[in-house]
Every structure is written in C-alpha cells, then in structure tokens.
Design a protein that fits this description.
The chain has 21 helices and 20 strands. With about 675 residues, it is of the alpha/beta class. The structure holds beta-D-glucopyranuronic acid. InterPro entries: A-glucoronidase_C_sf, GH, Glyco_hydro_67_C, Glyco_hydro_67_cat.
C-alpha cells in the first residue's frame, strides 16, 4: 500500500515466485487469494500463473516450476500443508484452503531456495490451533487511554472518528495479509476494557465488525469481540446481568444469534470480568465458571445448525486481582490472585470456554516467573497471553525484541513435564503492537515482535533467533550480496540481545515495576511503592525484594508444581534473575553469579547503557543500506532510548546507593 511500510512482505520477497510458472489447483475464496497473490507477483516480475479449478483437468504439473494444490486429507487439518521439490517442480499440497495460503507464504519465506534445492516432502502444521491478537482499540478516543489503550503506533487500524474506518479497510486487508504470512488466524478488534460506545459493537453496531471481518476473511482470519459482562443491562435494559438468570441467558443467546447472522464465522467473545473495575459475576455471588459457561452456551446454541463450521469460543481472562489493596499488608500478594481465584474452578468450564492467562503472575514485566496457574489446571483449556505492545518494555521507543522472553516462557515445563506451549491448548494470544502508523508498529524494529509472536504461536519450540533471522531476511531486501551480509548482521546485532539490555537498565533481578505510574514509561523507583496496586519492591536500608516463600512469606512459591515450588522456595536454588521476585535479600547477598545484589544492580545499569550506545553505533553504520525514512525513524527512537536508559541508570543506581550506603566496587560516579 502506498506510503505504508511493506514490513516482511516487500515486493522483492515475491520475485522468486513472480518470475516463474505456477499452477494453482483447487476452488474457493482463499484459493482465490492465493491466485491473486501469485498473479500480482507475475504481473510485477513477468512470470505466469494458470488456474485450474477442476479436479483433474489434465494439466501437466511438470510444465510448471510451482504447483499449489488442494488435495485429499493427509492428517494435517485445515491449516497444514506439505512442501517438496523433485524433478524441477516445487509442489505444495494442502487439504484446507488456509493450508494452501500458508503453503504459499512458506514458499515466500524460502525465497530462491524454494526453486533451486531439491527437498523431500515435509509436512507443516501449527502446533497451536488458535493464534490470536487482541487489539486494545477503542472506537472512540478515551479521555485517559487515547484511542488504543497502551498503544504506541498511532491510532487504531480499525476505528477512526468513532466508527469503523470504512474507506481504509484496504489497510485492514493488508494487515490480514501480513498476519497470515506469519501464521496468525484470529483477531479481537476492540479493547478488553469495554466502554459505552464499544459495548454497542455487540448489538446495533455489529455491522461495523462484520465489515472488518469481511476484510480479514480472505486471509484466513476470524474476528472476535470483547464484550462487557453488563451488556444485558447496559444494552438490553434488563435489571440484572446474573449469569444464572433465565432472562439474561436468553438475551445473550438471542444477541449472539444476531452476531452470527452478521458474521457466520464469528470467532467468539473476549471477557475481562471483575478486573480493574470491569463488571463480572462476583456481583451476583456467581463464579467465573458460571459467567464463562453462560457465554459459552450462547455461542454454542447460536452456531449449531449454521454452515459456519466450528463454533465460537469465549476467552475468559484470568487477570483478576484486588487493585485496591493495603500496601502495608505484606500478606496479600497480587501474584497469588489468578491461581487463588481459578484453580478451584478447574474442570468446571465448558469445552468452548477458554481461560486466558497472562504468562506471568503480575503484568507483563520485563522479567517474571511463569504463572503457576498454567501448570495447575489440567481440566481446563488455557490460552496464554503475552504482550507485544511494549507497555513495560520501552513503549516502542526502545528496541526490545521479546522473542527470547516468549520462547523461554513457552518452553518452561510448568507442571514439571509439559511445556507452556503444550499446555496452551486454548491458544496463544498477544496484545497487538500495531496501529495506523506507516511502519505499523511505530518503531520499525518492533515489527520483529509481531512476526516472532506469530511464528512462535505456530511452533512454540522454534528457535527464536532463527525466526529473527527469517524476519530480517524478509524485511531487509538485499541489494548487493556482500552488503546484504553486513545489513543482516547489523540488524541482528541491534535486536538479538535487546531484551536483556532493557532488563539490565530497568528494574533488577525480577523485582519489576519501578515505572512512572499511569503511563508506565520511564523510571520511578517508588512510583508504585505506596499505592494500592500490589506492586511492591519493599526496599529499605537493609535489602530489597518480596518474600514470597512458603516458610516466611506470602506462600506464592508454594503454588508451583514440582520441582519449581522447591526451586523458588529457597534463595539458594532460586535463579538470580528471579531472586527479588521471590525473596527479600540483603544488598550484600552473594548471587550465583559471584556478585553481590548491590554490585549487580550497579554493574547491570552501567552495562545496559553501554549496550544501547553500542547498538546505536551499529545502527548508524547501516545508514547507506537502509531506506532513509526507516533509518531516520529508528535513529530518532534510539536517541530517546539512550536518554531514557541513562535516566534509568542514574535513578536506580543513586536510589540504591543512598538506601544501602554501599559504594560501587569500581568507584564509578553515582549521583
Ligand atoms: C495492564 C494495562 C491495562 C490493561 C490491563 C489488562 O496497564 O491498560 O487494561 O493490563 O490486561 O497491563 O486488562
């Protein structure tokens, strides 16, 4: 699209296909999409594409370089595909149309290699069925949160001037294309905090959601809607929203059937209930299973008998905690909340109710342990939620590639045996980092987070660094080969370590927070220390950290399955990077690394800033290889990152120097 960054689908990525002869076999709207993609590539690069919709019209596959074909079931489901190359023909087969589309994008990723190297037949299928982005987009601009809550990439892609962006739905389609090219198949189009205008998307404004669904459908993406639990009252005029009330249940059933009339392949509801002021079943003395199951029933009933295929799902969020707690009370612990609320309900949720859990027990900090709930609900379908929008990781002004953090989380054996990726049977979800910015994500390098999330959701045990390479090769189209190596190595150097760099200059050793209240950007060591949000570090003159042990603390460590409960219980076995999350330690405590806590704080904060300076230098050296607009945008963000990193370093180091009175072993200046 004009004026919009092509991200990981630049024209050049289609050159290997567009210069060749392609045969497409099969019928259906997504096969049309595949055909459209190849035809467009051929128009640009001079190749040829033949469409053969008949089952066997006798076209001779060997006359082609690429054959994309719908075939019978091969046990790969509707999204899987196979790819092989023999006798000079690259052959992609799929049973479902979406699989064929994913097969095409697989060939795009392979580039020239798809046509030059023989390859044995390889089967590909997603490990996780639902790979979803939650947009925290408001239809109307919210007076405090703006249009996109925690959005750092401009306005909403979907909504402008209080309604769906009719004239710009072409951009939504282009977004769907990008998402399909990294494997995402579901999008929730509005904020989990549902305000008055947004509530009506469920009823009289469903047509606007349907228009978005139409724009995304050609790329295999279903839409979901965030709804308010109070909808029967605020929209239906009922006196109650009690999930066991017959009138309320009927209202949801009827409303949902109208949603299906407008959007036959509607994905389902996302619900934030009894959380940070949102209404929920607690008001009626009902459990969250009662609430979720009522909506699950409405989604099932409405869909039965329709031709739309699989029915809708309710994604019920587990982010439920007391945000009005007494900071002086060291026994209440926000980290415990999701487990305490939901584990007793294990086994009670309907099959199409998915419990959506943030990957950590707190709230998307740069370092958190895995939520213990994930290993403790074998009878419930769980979805795991990560945050691509960089609320606590630099707000898309700092480079912070989150691939290694997500990969560590997904490979963590939460119940002692299965990984988080395996336990996420209900899907993987990221809070989107996209807006109407020409680079999609504000910081052009933040695109790597979106891409990596999609690819990890497809294959949670993939090596994230391999995915980073893939993103770089696709996004930064080489001009001359020796220069492409320099370009790729430079971008890799800037991104690959950036999460650890960010961790170094911000809150230390898993303690989290220390951000400016409200907007959450920049340092404020005590910003949340004396507030009711449950986000404390408890630093005093002797030490820092939260005692969450069973023996002497809040007992949170005991929520883990074996072996983690024991590992986290003792400072002797707790990993350094999480030490202050689980324990209150003296400044002179010796870490496994051989440094004291206080020296670790000083060293990492100096190193973090040095690493940003080095990364900025690498980026500057790429000025002749990156297009000027993109280079300038990243440079401008880097300057702010460096300023902010220095501010973090100075505030955190001086705070702890003054609290502890311990001098830096290297005699560096601390203010
Ligand atoms: C927090 C955000 C807040 C969200 C909330 C959520 O600060 O804006 O509404 O998460 O996930 O991280 O519901």
């Amino acid at each position: 699209m004009q004026g919009v960054d092509p991200a990981w689908l630049p024209d050049g990525a289609f050159r290997p296909i567009g210069t060749r002869r392609t045969l497409i076999r099969g019928a259906g709207p997504l096969v049309d999409t595949v055909h459209g993609e190849v035809a467009e590539a051929c128009r640009r690069f001079g190749g040829r594409v033949v469409r053969d919709a008949g089952a066997d019209a006798g076209a001779d596959g060997t006359a082609y370089d690429l054959v994309l074909e719908l075939t019978g079931p091969e046990g790969l489901g509707s999204e899987g595909f196979t790819c092989r190359r023999e006798n000079g023909v690259t052959h992609v087969t799929a049973f479902g149309q979406t699989g064929l589309l994913y097969g095409l994008f697989h060939v795009v990723r392979l580039g020239e290699r798809a046509f030059t190297q023989d390859r044995q037949k390889q089967a590909h299928r997603p490990a996780v069925a639902l790979r979803m982005l939650d947009h925290w987009d408001n239809v109307a601009v919210h007076p405090v949160m703006g249009q996109v809550e925690r959005g750092y990439a401009g306005g909403s892609l979907f909504w402008a001037d209080g309604r769906a962006r009719g004239e710009l739905l072409g951009r939504v389609r282009a977004y769907g294309r990008l998402l399909a090219a990294c494997g995402i198949n579901a999008v929730a189009v509005n904020n989990v905090n549902v305000h008055a205008v947004e509530a009506r998307l469920l009823t009289d404004r469903i047509g606007e959601v349907a228009a978005i669904a139409d724009a995304l459908r050609p790329y295999g993406i279903r839409v979901h809607l965030s709804v308010t639990f109070a909808a029967p009252m605020v929209l239906g005029g009922l006196p109650t929203a009690d999930p066991l009330d017959e009138g309320v249940r009927d209202w949801w059933a009827q409303t949902t059937s109208r949603v299906y009339e407008a959007i036959p392949d509607f994905g389902g509801y996302v619900v934030k209930a009894d959380s940070e002021g949102q209404p929920g079943p607690f008001a009626y003395g009902r459990s969250h299973a009662d609430g979720a199951n009522m909506l699950a029933a409405a989604l099932t009933a409405s869909d039965s008998g329709s031709a739309a295929g699989p029915g809708g799902t309710v994604h019920w969020r587990a982010f439920v905690y007391d945000h009005r707690q007494d900071w002086r009370d060291r026994t209440t612990d926000r980290a415990r909340a999701a487990y305490d609320h939901f584990v007793p309900l294990d086994g009670q949720f309907a099959p199409n109710a998915v419990l959506q859990v943030k990957h950590g027990p707190m709230d998307f900090q740069v370092r958190e342990p895995i939520s213990p709930l994930i290993g403790a609900m074998p009878g419930t379908r769980l979805a795991v939620e990560v945050q691509a929008t960089q609320e606590y990781t630099g707000q898309q002004r700092h480079v912070c590639w989150l691939g290694p953090m997500w990969s560590e989380a997904l490979r963590f054996r939460a119940d002692g045996e299965s990984t988080v990726g395996e336990l996420a049977r209900g899907g993987l979800v990221a809070v989107s980092n996209v807006g109407d910015d020409p680079f999609w994500t504000g910081h052009p390098l933040a695109q790597a987070n979106l891409y990596t999330f999609g690819r990890l959701a497809w294959q949670p045990d993939a090596n994230p660094y391999g995915l980073l390479d893939e993103w770089i090769r696709l996004t930064y189209t080489p001009t001359r080969s020796e220069e492409s190596a320099r370009l790729e190595a430079g971008v890799y150097a800037v991104l690959s370590h950036s999460w650890r760099t960010y961790e170094k200059y911000t809150a230390p050793l898993g303690v989290g927070w220390m951000v400016q209240p409200g907007h959450h950007y920049g340092p404020s060591v005590d910003g949340y220390e004396y507030s009711p949000w449950g986000t404390y570090h408890f630093a005093d003159r002797d030490g820092i950290g939260v005692d969450r042990s069973v023996a002497t603390g809040t007992g949170f460590a005991g929520q883990y399955a074996k072996p983690w409960a024991e590992v986290y219980e003792s400072p002797e076995t707790c990993p350094d990077e999480l030490l202050l999350f689980f324990h209150h330690m003296s400044y002179e405590h010796m870490l496994h690394s051989g440094k004291t806590v206080i020296q670790h704080i000083y060293d990492t904060h100096f190193e973090g800033v040095e690493e940003v300076e080095a990364a900025l230098g690498v980026w500057a050296s790429l000025v002749d290889l990156v297009d000027p607009a993109r280079h300038a945008r990243v440079t401008e963000r880097f300057e702010e990152q460096l300023r902010s990193a220095r501010e973090w370093r100075d505030q955190v180091n001086s705070y702890f120097f003054r609290k502890s009175g311990v001098a830096d072993a290297h005699g560096r200046r601390i203010y």
